[in-house]
Design a protein that fits this description.
Elements (H helix, E strand, L loop, with lengths): L8 H12 L7 H6 L16 H5 L13 H4 L11 E9 L9 E11 L3 E11 L3 E8 L4 E7 L2 E12 L4 E13 L11 E18 L2 E15 L16 E11 L4 E12 L18 H8 L3 H7 L8 H6 L1 E11 L3 E9 L9 E9 L3 E10 L10 E8 H12 L1
Antiparallel strand pairs: 1-2, 1-16, 2-3, 3-6, 4-5, 6-7, 7-8, 8-9, 9-10, 10-11, 11-12, 12-13, 13-14, 14-15, 15-16
């Protein structure tokens, strides 16, 4: 009998998902409860920049900066600078492999005083993946296969202030995921389109004779089509996500400032269903298609609020939360600290982050580091680096040189 190479791209999705969602404990009863919300194109959930990464992956309501495209594009009209661009690099999952990384470029331009346009491009490389040796019985040869899977997304957004304190933004995104191996079996790269809807409130109030800032942010991102890799008729959900954040900034004097922020996240994707015995459906069960794969993306958003097998208690477990703090000296030097928590039954990603930054009139540089607080977490020892450029500052600098 001829051994046919039947690699399915969904297999690589599952492998990548296991890098993000870890088993919480060794006890069997704990494992039986482990039911994370899984999606395709999980790289879209990775925070790309070092500032947010240093604050525990917080950013929905923090003060606007050049990297707001990922966290909340509605913040851009509140940026002090007229235009900016940043480059971020994340060597990902270094405890497991050495060649998985994320690169991200983001930029914005303010139009007048009340609106802005922005865009970003992210490229996620899964490195070199060896598929082992395959026996080609028809030819009698043995062949070793190596692939280089990758994913990228490009997006653009428009944001506008609707009052002195409130703004909204909308964005569009194209997603491309090439994690296939053998195009002979009908598989192909997956493509999807998505949209973001964002809101941001920023105001000031007096506390202890100091003018403090308060920010509230909401971002629903990746509202869009499902993604299909062509090997079968299954379409996978992309990581549609609801992010809600709060930020408080307290100035101690003209030079020292302290901010504390918190974000709550929930994937707006259906939980994988289980049968009456509490066990996941098998691939051949038609009930699985009706209750999961045949659900439209919009219906899946609403279903995600009430479909957890263990009811409301499990729905609350699907909420991830992060808290972060930032100290700023003279708006030039920054220290950051944060914590991210995910319930043990939904992935168990628990980690502390730390970061620092330095800003000049023309450029800024930031770095952050992840310390895992859960056992055998592959996120441990993950770093992010971001280099930002203030285009107004560069224009003024080169203008002075010409004079």
């Amino acid at each position: 009998m001829k051994l046919k190479r039947t690699y399915r791209p969904v297999l690589l999705v599952a492998i990548l998902s296991q890098l993000f969602f870890l088993h919480p404990a060794s006890a069997q009863d704990k494992k039986d409860m482990f039911n994370p919300v899984t999606t395709s194109v999980t790289s879209l959930s990775i925070a790309p920049d070092a500032r947010g990464g240093g604050m525990g992956d917080v950013g929905a309501a923090t003060e606007a900066d050049v990297n707001s495209q990922y966290w909340n594009p509605a913040k851009y009209p509140f940026c002090v600078g007229r235009a900016g661009v940043s480059i971020s690099y994340t060597p990902w999952l270094r405890k497991l492999v050495s060649d998985i990384n994320l690169a991200n470029v983001a930029g914005f331009y303010r139009i007048g005083d009340y609106s802005a346009i922005s865009a970003s491009l992210r490229y996620f490389s899964l490195g070199e993946v060896g598929l082992g040796e395959w026996d080609e019985i028809s030819s009698g040869a043995t062949e070793g296969m190596t692939i280089n899977p990758y994913e990228f997304a490009v997006d653009a957004a428009y944001s506008r202030m609707l009052s002195d304190y409130f703004s909204m933004g909308v964005g569009m995104r194209f997603i491309f995921s090439d994690i296939t191996y053998d195009y002979e079996d009908g598989s192909s790269p997956g493509k999807a389109f998505a949209a973001d809807i964002a809101m941001y409130y920023n105001n000031y109030f007096v506390m202890a004779n100091r003018e403090c800032g308060i920010g509230v942010g909401l971002n629903i991102n990746n509202i869009g089509s499902k993604i299909n890799y062509g090997a079968d008729d299954r379409s996978e959900f992309i990581p549609t996500n609801l992010r809600l954040g709060l930020n408080l900034t307290i100035p101690f004097d003209d030079y020292n400032r302290f901010s504390i922020a918190a974000d709550a996240n929930k994937l707006l994707v259906p939980t994988f269903p289980v049968d009456e015995n509490g066990k996941p459906y098998t691939d051949s069960d038609p009930e699985l298609y009706k209750r999961y794969y045949d659900i439209s993306p919009i219906a899946g958003i609403f279903k995600s609020f009430y479909d957890a097998p263990n009811g409301f208690k499990e729905e609350l477990q699907e909420i991830q939360w992060s808290v972060g703090a930032e100290y700023s000296y003279n708006d030039r030097f920054f220290l950051r600290l944060g914590y991210h928590d995910e319930h043990a039954n939904k992935g168990n990603r628990k980690y502390i982050t730390a970061g620092a930054g330095f800003k000049m009139s023309v450029f800024s540089i930031d770095a952050s580091y992840v310390f895992s607080t859960s056992q055998t977490n592959p996120l441990d020892q993950t770093m992010r680096f971001t280099l930002g450029f203030d285009l107004d500052g560069m224009k003024d600098l080169f203008g002075r040189k010409r004079r």
